[in-house]
């Protein structure tokens, strides 16, 4: 067969494909058979036989046995160090007919040592040769090359692995993320065909088990299935475009979808996104697994195995991944899924693939309503900023996210109908929650803000007004998650009216009093709902795409919100709750006392501590909790008859709380100055294996109270009212915010009436180990008495309210210089938010720049 006949046969095959006689897999197979037949025939004609010392080896598409309509022929003419003249004659006889027939060709002529040398120096060449396949001629010569390349790849993988990671990242940076591109590059983009081929190369190096290692999600989108789907789409793209095009353009999408019986261009986009995200998750797992499996040499072999470091109940860090503790039993612990995800988000560590598989196989459904701890962990996850993206993606790709939120299936991989959107609908929701988490210190209900951000567009893809449908779904979700009825109502109203402020601000006259009145009436005069919608409008715009949120839109919405706030009555003042009769009896008994009783929720206890009131007492009480590994969900600070009565709702780090007698002894030692609680807690933070900036509490509700700790310079570190034991986290998300207000029934204005008066100081900030202790120490240093305090932790955000007065009755708490000094010193001990890491920036989890997105160290 002449090369012109080969070209003619190719054209006929494409005509058959267009008429529907050949589907995409069939077309690829026939093309492979056709080119192999021609190469074998031509090789025999040129003397490329079994004992000739010559062989034709295919790489690329022909080597993999999946030749596309307009793919290049990637061929190597191997020779056993034959004379140059003979090799040149054979090469010319093989290459020129293909060129003359306008068949695209990528060729080389090599001896086996030359080919191995090229593979040792060039990662791209090595990856190609790993897919080499014998076509014609001396098969022993081909085996020598193929076996030699694989052996060389395995022996050099330890030193070449950083180059492999860098090579992949450079490709992703150039081609982008397939799942979120309007015109995705199916071959080279992140989540594309090259990534599956890279997984195969890692499997050849015996570092992973290839594409089979990643679990299929409920839709059956295993990595190999996803690969075949993208390969079919690429085949049809070549056929329709009539050229070797790799990017799916909008004008071709409907025809491709029809040819593959997928649907219209939106259905095709959803199919591509699903396949690409499955592959993207698989390559994350594969690179991380490969990095951990690299062979050790020399002194590295003597290195001690990685330590299993506790992160949460049943969750530990091992070898740079979040895994289950040895004694964890997923089948008996429905909340384990969310604890694993929250631990991953707050530490920036990826979840182990084996852990996800175990959870998918054995973890039961959460009962309805969710336990308080599960809702708390969900809020911690959503409050972790951009660090939530990878854990949620991992849960979603393994079917666990849909188990938690069944309504998610309608928006999974759903393409946007508006070109202004950068993300699929499900990723847009996660991105909105990510941006909202940086605004949690602006609102009084940060938990509802991040929950509302996550579900505000959940009604899309259902053929009706997504705001109305979404509001109904929000009620369904809120009840399932165990929110209070009034909170379910606010959540539903957030979803129903999430477009209200942008729409009114940009389309109506703000000077017209009826405009603000319309918004207030629509929201029922609910101030909390108004501030939540203001933050959600900004987060939603930022997550939509570049340029959607700007100075013009921001100024209009903020002006509208200010006008609405003037029409709404003031916020109800924060007040202390009374002591129970049992607590009053403990206070009147005098001396030191510690009581522990089970509280609502699994592994949750109420610790009541009583001691003679004095400055700094709260600091020591909370510090004792921290030293015993008790993380506080909420706290109430009160007093009676000269005794401080402070209650903490806590969760032990592991197991059960310590004995009451031991805690009482340590409390006495701390009060008498025999134990420096803050110093010990600071040491714990400093010794954390991962750089620690923030630590997260898991509370969602608060117990309010009064304490006359006359200067209760409070301070609770680890267990103070927030801080979960020394669980390291790599980031803070929201900036600290300090608010001042007056005390009901007392003058707090400037002037003589304010002397000796009280004021309310409210701190909103991301949590940190020892935060309450440090803040209380600042207040004590400024001569402040804490009359009572309300400590609340909502996800990652601490909302601490202190009723304070100055120790010197001649000095006013309203002095501007005093307030400025207090604020400045408090801000110094608060965690500082880290810059947001944008997707595909090249940085890894946490934005440290020291790891790839998959957690693989980069040299």
TrEMBL record:
<dbReference type="GO" id="GO:0008773">
    <property type="term" value="F:[protein-PII] uridylyltransferase activity"/>
</dbReference>
<dbReference type="InterPro" id="IPR043519">
    <property type="entry name" value="NT_sf"/>
</dbReference>
<keyword id="KW-0677">Repeat</keyword>
<dbReference type="InterPro" id="IPR003607">
    <property type="entry name" value="HD/PDEase_dom"/>
</dbReference>
<dbReference type="Pfam" id="PF01966">
    <property type="entry name" value="HD"/>
</dbReference>
<protein>
    <recommendedName>
        <fullName>Bifunctional uridylyltransferase/uridylyl-removing enzyme</fullName>
        <ecNumber>2.7.7.59</ecNumber>
        <ecNumber>3.1.4.-</ecNumber>
    </recommendedName>
</protein>
<comment type="similarity">
    <text>Belongs to the GlnD family.</text>
</comment>
<keyword id="KW-0511">Multifunctional enzyme</keyword>
<dbReference type="InterPro" id="IPR006674">
    <property type="entry name" value="HD_domain"/>
</dbReference>
<feature type="compositionally biased region" description="Gly residues">
    <location>
        <begin position="843"/>
        <end position="852"/>
    </location>
</feature>
<dbReference type="GO" id="GO:0008081">
    <property type="term" value="F:phosphoric diester hydrolase activity"/>
</dbReference>
<keyword id="KW-0378">Hydrolase</keyword>
<dbReference type="InterPro" id="IPR010043">
    <property type="entry name" value="UTase/UR"/>
</dbReference>
<keyword id="KW-0808">Transferase</keyword>
<keyword id="KW-0548">Nucleotidyltransferase</keyword>
<feature type="domain" description="HD">
    <location>
        <begin position="425"/>
        <end position="539"/>
    </location>
</feature>
<dbReference type="Pfam" id="PF08335">
    <property type="entry name" value="GlnD_UR_UTase"/>
</dbReference>
<feature type="domain" description="ACT">
    <location>
        <begin position="760"/>
        <end position="840"/>
    </location>
</feature>
<comment type="function">
    <text>Modifies, by uridylylation and deuridylylation, the PII regulatory proteins (GlnB and homologs), in response to the nitrogen status of the cell that GlnD senses through the glutamine level. Under low glutamine levels, catalyzes the conversion of the PII proteins and UTP to PII-UMP and PPi, while under higher glutamine levels, GlnD hydrolyzes PII-UMP to PII and UMP (deuridylylation). Thus, controls uridylylation state and activity of the PII proteins, and plays an important role in the regulation of nitrogen metabolism.</text>
</comment>
<dbReference type="InterPro" id="IPR002912">
    <property type="entry name" value="ACT_dom"/>
</dbReference>
<feature type="region of interest" description="Uridylyltransferase">
    <location>
        <begin position="1"/>
        <end position="310"/>
    </location>
</feature>
<feature type="domain" description="ACT">
    <location>
        <begin position="606"/>
        <end position="683"/>
    </location>
</feature>
<feature type="region of interest" description="Disordered">
    <location>
        <begin position="829"/>
        <end position="859"/>
    </location>
</feature>
<dbReference type="GO" id="GO:0006808">
    <property type="term" value="P:regulation of nitrogen utilization"/>
</dbReference>
<dbReference type="InterPro" id="IPR013546">
    <property type="entry name" value="PII_UdlTrfase/GS_AdlTrfase"/>
</dbReference>
<keyword id="KW-0460">Magnesium</keyword>
<dbReference type="InterPro" id="IPR045865">
    <property type="entry name" value="ACT-like_dom_sf"/>
</dbReference>
